């Protein structure tokens, strides 16, 4: 009797589906690739043909130039070599998808990166029952419990209100996190212009083109110090302690990341205001997702695999870690 999932192969460079002759999120250029979302550790340039959601293809085009892209909308199914392939929301960033593979009487779901929290900038995660669930484990340790997002945004707004002569400079990754922080601020009633680093302009514009309302955004390069007093400024994390920040009015340095749960990370980055806002599932959400989906097997990748594998084994769920390379935490 063939083992479960014998028709897909896990390689260091990605997951290969021989029957369909296609790779999922390969870290090197391939003739055919299915891409879960637009972050650079999943969406590489150079593939001869790409299948992804229309939003992910738009993100890839903005980053890499025109793609040989084939759009697949949520809920649509295509067939390659007898493998039925579908895309459903992963809740990670705009256009992010889980990839459903149906073949040989089995269903495998490749989750990519995902989160369970509501996010005004992207479709919410959709659980899908399956035989094998391939899950990330970025925050796969019990210590990681993300607080409510609105509480972290309230901290940001309180710091702003208490320091009207300063600005709050928030480090946020250019794809997904920056737009989410802006949208969450708007949802809590912050209507003032938000100032952004030039490196965020292109992807913020793309989100707005895709129907995500971010309100009034202004480039820091077009503003004076006086205009930015009492304002929120967003920049890539790399700019927090850069010479660029000297043009700002006495900034309170903040950073939006799930890693801000680790105090030492905040100290290393000279972060005055840690904001624990993550686009990945925390430990509780990872384990609750597995209980909800109830797969026969769990394959764990890019993260703290050992703890999640152990959790599965103690609950009689077969589990293993995949040795994939090329994934990092730049998107959080």
UniProtKB/TrEMBL annotation:
Keywords: Exonuclease, Hydrolase, Nuclease
GO MF terms, alphabetically ordered: exonuclease activity; RNA endonuclease activity
Gene3D superfamilies documented for this protein: 3.40.50.10890, Ribonuclease Z/Hydroxyacylglutathione hydrolase-like (3.60.15.10)
NCBIfam families assigned to the protein according to its UniProt record, in alphabetical order: Xnuc_lig_assoc
Listed name of the protein: RNA procession exonuclease-like protein
Protein species of origin: Sphingomonas sanxanigenens DSM 19645 = NX02
């Amino acid at each position: 009797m063939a083992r479960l999932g014998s028709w897909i192969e896990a390689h260091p460079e990605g997951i290969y589906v021989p029957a369909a002759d296609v790779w999922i999120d390969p870290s090197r250029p391939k003739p055919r690739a299915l891409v879960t979302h637009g972050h650079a550790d999943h969406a590489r340039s150079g593939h001869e043909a790409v299948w992804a959601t229309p939003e992910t293809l738009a993100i890839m085009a903005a980053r890499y130039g025109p793609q040989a892209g084939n759009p697949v909308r949520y809920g649509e199914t295509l067939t390659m070599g007898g493998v039925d392939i579908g895309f459903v929301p992963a809740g990670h960033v705009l256009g992010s998808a889980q990839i459903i593979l149906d073949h040989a009487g089995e269903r495998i779901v490749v989750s990519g990166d995902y989160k369970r929290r509501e996010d005004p900038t992207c479709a919410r995660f959709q659980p899908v029952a399956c035989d094998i669930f391939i899950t990330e484990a970025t925050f796969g340790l019990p210590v990681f419990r993300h607080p409510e997002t609105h509480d972290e945004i309230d901290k940001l707004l309180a710091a702003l209100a208490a320091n009207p002569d300063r600005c709050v400079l928030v480090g946020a990754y250019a794809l997904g996190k920056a737009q989410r922080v802006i949208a969450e601020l708007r949802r809590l009633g912050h209507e003032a212009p938000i100032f952004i680093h030039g490196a965020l302009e292109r992807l913020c514009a793309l989100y707005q083109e895709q129907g995500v309302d971010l309100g009034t955004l202004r480039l820091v390069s077009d503003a004076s110090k006086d205009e930015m007093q009492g304002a929120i400024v967003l920049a890539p994390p790399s700019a927090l302690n850069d010479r660029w920040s000297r043009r700002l009015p006495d900034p309170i340095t903040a950073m939006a990341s799930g890693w801000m749960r680790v105090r030492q990370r905040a100290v290393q980055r000279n972060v005055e205001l840690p904001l624990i806002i993550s686009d990945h599932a925390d430990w509780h959400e990872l384990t609750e997702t597995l209980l909800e989906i109830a797969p026969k097997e769990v394959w764990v990748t890019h993260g703290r695999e050992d703890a999640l594998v152990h959790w599965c084994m103690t609950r009689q769920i077969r589990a293993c870690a995949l040795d994939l390379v090329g994934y990092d935490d730049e998107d959080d």
